[in-house]
């Protein structure tokens, strides 16, 4: 009953508000109207009525990975991960501490751009990475990545069913007729594509990069920077993977005619300067991305977007990091469900890691080493389940609180479900919980609890874009 009501509210709200909140669409023509309607259907189909099942499923995968070397496990669990091509870290073995402490100390990391480079043998430290990393043949089997997502964005397969498209040059001179071999030409093509790059590139987007459905942007093997221009727009589409790129110094750009598919172009208003903007889209996975210094947000997910996982990424030097739900008046975001996992929130961050409205948010095994206002915030009664994160508070007494609630009295926000489970609080950090403790007993296959916050540093050691080389373990 509650789910049906939420879906009805979403449909009504989306129909009434989309014309007024079009995210840079200057003319909402028939093509965009059709995309909006299709996106709404995908959102409804992607919504999970019992989101705690998804969080427990995520926890199950984390713990199955962590225990995979235990000889008492059944063979099928060991086979799921394999051990021939990688070094597995046993989180519960204190003998691993000495090596890791060289790279992750008990307070703040010794960071360059927020992170010290690891120079040891290839290691995997969480179940997403275990699925594909530390295999010599990763470059010949890139699409294996499509099987590795966890959390609410776990259905994202991107361009798995399509051909490989190789970006050969970094130009972005013609947004109406993109040149073949450019990233803009790749992302507007029909059908699924797995987009890779032929060499290191610095891509300065002259206008926002408007993607189409069923695409993977895979930067592994080269240093791919999207910088000093516009950012990436994921609007009214589905099934996108963005992996292994560096997005920084994104600026607001002017609008005008921009081609958004092979068959259509339209007039856009000025872009805001978001690194990645997700608008009314579903089944999105952002993994191993390094982001900093954007004019607006690093990642914004708004207007009915759902089924999103943000994982293994490294965020630095920014004010408003991640915004999940942009409007207190858009109740359609009650269907928003997002997993934020294995990320490092590092140097120079101020707030919104993330800032949430309306929906359900699983924030798990992240490492928070810097903030200047707060780490996790929200309004309009979002459900936030924080599990196994490490929070290191700034030295100032007035900045110790992890959480921040907006536009609500204490009598109101005390009913919101914000729970902290197995988080590690350091340097005086504290998380103000609200709502009733979780009492729902999960399905028996989800019985193992999340890994504790004391292990968050290890699990996020390789957050951000990786230095992968073809023929070598990544």
TrEMBL record:
<dbReference type="InterPro" id="IPR045032">
    <property type="entry name" value="PEL"/>
</dbReference>
<dbReference type="GO" id="GO:0030570">
    <property type="term" value="F:pectate lyase activity"/>
</dbReference>
<keyword id="KW-0106">Calcium</keyword>
<keyword id="KW-0456">Lyase</keyword>
<dbReference type="Pfam" id="PF00544">
    <property type="entry name" value="Pectate_lyase_4"/>
</dbReference>
<keyword id="KW-0732">Signal</keyword>
<protein>
    <recommendedName>
        <fullName>Pectate lyase</fullName>
        <ecNumber>4.2.2.2</ecNumber>
    </recommendedName>
</protein>
<dbReference type="InterPro" id="IPR012334">
    <property type="entry name" value="Pectin_lyas_fold"/>
</dbReference>
<feature type="domain" description="Pectate lyase">
    <location>
        <begin position="200"/>
        <end position="397"/>
    </location>
</feature>
<comment type="pathway">
    <text>Glycan metabolism; pectin degradation; 2-dehydro-3-deoxy-D-gluconate from pectin: step 2/5.</text>
</comment>
<dbReference type="InterPro" id="IPR007524">
    <property type="entry name" value="Pec_lyase_N"/>
</dbReference>
<keyword id="KW-0134">Cell wall</keyword>
<dbReference type="InterPro" id="IPR011050">
    <property type="entry name" value="Pectin_lyase_fold/virulence"/>
</dbReference>
<feature type="signal peptide">
    <location>
        <begin position="1"/>
        <end position="23"/>
    </location>
</feature>
<dbReference type="GO" id="GO:0045490">
    <property type="term" value="P:pectin catabolic process"/>
</dbReference>
<dbReference type="Pfam" id="PF04431">
    <property type="entry name" value="Pec_lyase_N"/>
</dbReference>
<keyword id="KW-0479">Metal-binding</keyword>
<keyword id="KW-0325">Glycoprotein</keyword>
<dbReference type="InterPro" id="IPR018082">
    <property type="entry name" value="AmbAllergen"/>
</dbReference>
<comment type="similarity">
    <text>Belongs to the polysaccharide lyase 1 family.</text>
</comment>
<keyword id="KW-0964">Secreted</keyword>
<dbReference type="GO" id="GO:0046872">
    <property type="term" value="F:metal ion binding"/>
</dbReference>
<dbReference type="InterPro" id="IPR002022">
    <property type="entry name" value="Pec_lyase"/>
</dbReference>
